[in-house]
């Protein structure tokens, strides 16, 4: 509904109400005199009504199973305990609370765990807010590990209102604590994260960052927060607003090398097929393949291209400044750089380096790879010469096709259906044939081709 239409409907409803109650009839005699003031008044009423609607739905939140885990130890003063409750109530404004949307549970802990309400207790935001206001301070110890264990084993069970894991509803626990735990947290927190619970650790005051990192999920930059005192805990509201309302991959500098995947209030990095995520949770590592895998990849390389054939607009390798050190390959959603046999891509996915090996046979390949057969000047290629270990092949510039002699180039035929597919197939067949010959000579090659983007 547009803003103007909403204002019109609002004004119409108010006018009808005034007419029915007789108020408008009394104003008819002075309509020309008070028309301006009446219009201003109606618009102000509609504006306030619109603002109220916006406050009810500040963002389009994702359905979650969300459990607050609140430290209620004796080190927290009564006025600070009230600030924690205010923080929770303010944070609720960014959650779409309901049985079929976000379910909210809460437990507080001291020397023991005291559940206040479970995920299936309340079905509206107002009910949750009222329950938070009625919480009573425990003022005992700080058994944080025990609280995490209860959260995992009880709070996030289907009996307590958590939805089945098969529905893939994110399970989020937000732990707020102000002191050093009196029990161990590392193992039980790791077990909870392994069980699929995304943990946010909020520390206030003298909590050690090491403890918070042992509790919170990765990346710690998004899941672990420490403020100096309870007065500053409200500063985290704006932080969690962007997490709960926005696409985290667009909000933060995720530094994912390959793919960033947004999740509620956070994100995670993923690698393309054929890669594994490094321990830093951001960069990816690929595996080198033998000549057998390379021949298979080369024979299927034409599948990287859309059905015959690429238009000028689709030829990203020609249109973009790709910066590929060796080979640029068009994909359906862009392009990617690849390496020649005996090389691997560096972390920038553009430049290449020679693979190291102590194998004597592979050492011979390195020696051969060091010789650029195109530089010898006797290749006979009309346009471009592409070096291979121990050999070379010819390729043509954009708009031309490689002739049957494998050296000269011909103008691209008028029939665009032929496009560049013919030259690509010829090129790939020549590469495959050269590699087969090298393999039959018992020369071991290593080549790594990054797979297609997901």
From TrEMBL:
GO cellular component, one term: extracellular region
GO molecular function: calcium ion binding
Main localization (coarse): secreted
InterPro entries tied to this protein: ECM_Assembly_Org (IPR050525), EGF (IPR000742), EGF-like_Ca-bd_dom (IPR001881), Growth_fac_rcpt_cys_sf (IPR009030), Matrilin_CC_sf (IPR036337), VWF_A (IPR002035), vWFA_dom_sf (IPR036465)
Domain of life: Eukaryota
Keyword tags: Coiled coil, Disulfide bond, EGF-like domain, Glycoprotein, Repeat, Secreted, Signal
Compartments in which it is found: Secreted
Domain VWFA: 65-240
Name assigned to this protein: VWFA domain-containing protein
């Amino acid at each position: 509904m547009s803003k103007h239409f909403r204002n019109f409907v609002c004004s119409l409803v108010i006018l009808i109400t005034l007419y029915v109650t007789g108020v408008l009839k009394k104003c008819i005699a002075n309509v020309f005199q008070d028309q301006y003031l009446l219009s201003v008044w109606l618009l102000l009423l509609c504006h306030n009504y619109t603002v109220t609607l916006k406050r009810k739905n500040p963002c389009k939140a994702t359905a979650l199973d969300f459990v607050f885990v609140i430290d209620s130890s004796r080190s927290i003063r009564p006025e600070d305990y009230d600030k924690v409750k205010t923080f929770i109530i303010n944070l609720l404004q960014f959650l779409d609370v309901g049985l079929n949307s976000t379910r909210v549970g809460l437990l507080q802990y001291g020397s023991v765990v005291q559940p206040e309400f479970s995920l299936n207790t309340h079905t509206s935001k107002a009910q949750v807010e009222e329950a938070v206001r009625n919480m009573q301070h425990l003022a005992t110890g700080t058994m944080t590990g025990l609280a995490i264990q209860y959260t995992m084993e009880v709070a996030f069970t289907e009996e307590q209102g958590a939805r089945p894991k098969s529905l893939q509803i994110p399970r989020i626990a937000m732990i707020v604590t102000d002191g050093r735990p009196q029990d161990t947290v590392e193992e039980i927190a790791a077990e909870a994260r392994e069980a699929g619970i995304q943990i946010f650790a909020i520390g206030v005051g003298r909590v050690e960052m090491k403890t918070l990192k042992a509790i919170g999920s990765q990346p710690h930059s998004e899941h672990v927060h420490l403020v100096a005192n309870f007065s500053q805990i409200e500063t985290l509201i704006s932080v969690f607003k962007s997490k709960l309302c926005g696409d985290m991959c667009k909000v933060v500098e995720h530094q994912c090398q390959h793919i960033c995947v947004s999740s509620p209030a956070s994100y995670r990095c993923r690698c393309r097929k054929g890669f594994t995520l490094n321990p830093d949770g951001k960069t990816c590592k690929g595996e080198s393949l033998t000549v057998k895998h390379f021949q298979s990849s080369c024979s299927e390389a034409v599948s990287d291209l859309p059905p015959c054939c690429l238009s000028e607009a689709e030829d990203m390798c020609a249109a973009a400044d790709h910066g590929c050190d060796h080979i640029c390959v068009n994909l359906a959603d862009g392009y990617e750089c690849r390496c020649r046999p005996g090389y691997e891509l560096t972390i920038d996915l553009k430049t290449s380096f020679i693979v190291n090996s102590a194998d004597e046979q592979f050492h011979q390949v390195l020696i051969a790879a060091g010789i650029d057969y195109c530089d010898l000047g006797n290749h006979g290629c009309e346009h471009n010469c592409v070096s291979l270990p121990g050999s070379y092949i010819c390729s043509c510039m954009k708009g031309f096709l490689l002739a049957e002699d494998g050296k000269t180039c011909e103008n691209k035929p008028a029939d665009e259906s032929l496009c560049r597919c013919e030259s690509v197939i010829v090129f790939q067949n020549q590469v495959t044939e050269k590699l087969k010959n090298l393999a039959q000579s018992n020369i071991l090659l290593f080549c790594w081709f990054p797979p297609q983007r997901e």
